[in-house]
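User: Protein folding is very new to me. Would you mind checking the protein record under this note? It all follows right here:
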Amino acid sequence: MNRSTLAVTVFENQYDRSTATLFIHGFMGSARDWSEIAAGLGGFCLGVDLPGHGDSIGLKKSDYSFARTVDLIIESLDAFRLRAVNVVGYSMGGRLALALACTHPDRVTHLILESASPGLKTAKERSERINLDRDRSREILLDFSAFLEKWYSLPLFSTFAAAPERRERIIRNRSRNRPEEIARALEGLGTGSQPSYWEALESIKVSTTAVVGSEDDQFVQIAADMTSRTDRIERIIIPGAGHNVHLDCVKAYLQALKSTLK
């Protein structure tokens, strides 16, 4: 029987939940990706496994969609009786975190978007991305190992070239995913499948921080474009980091989080 709940990992279980922090991982990751960051941050921290990732597999077909995943995250908060939380999201998780803040602003205390985009601005761009993600899904199903090598050779992850052991470790961890689940998640949660939240930024009510790595030119510019829309968004650039800031520069990332959430 298919289930409709996300797997949740509790990192730190202190009694006071008034300052709880929810972590949302990126594509092919899991809640476990945040273990070191959550331990360094402290407090009541939890993370969800997105549909098709970690232990959130075998869900209903309708659960592998962008809007439904936002609802499932809300249900996860309800299960822990958490009304409002700090939300930290990376890449795909950051896009979902922004959607959460735009659609359920009363559930978010502070929003931290790591290497995240409000989406593609035009219907044409979204249609082209949907087609690209379909092609990528076929690659995943055909040869997942080859896809992983290709994915982590993208310019987004250029900093991994100077840290081959880190690159191999992340590929090894990602290879534990089930290809059919990851392919389904990519088609349902990819950038082309989400609404554009660019216009929504102008009326966002939640205090927001966009964290990007200095070596990730694409998302440094996206973050700059976001801050130009509203003074509710602050941009923090972490020197020497690429797309995966919390993996590249743990100490600097933690410092940014603590400074933002103090």
Remarks:
- Strands lie at 8-12, 21-24, 45-48, 85-90, 108-114, 207-213, 233-238.
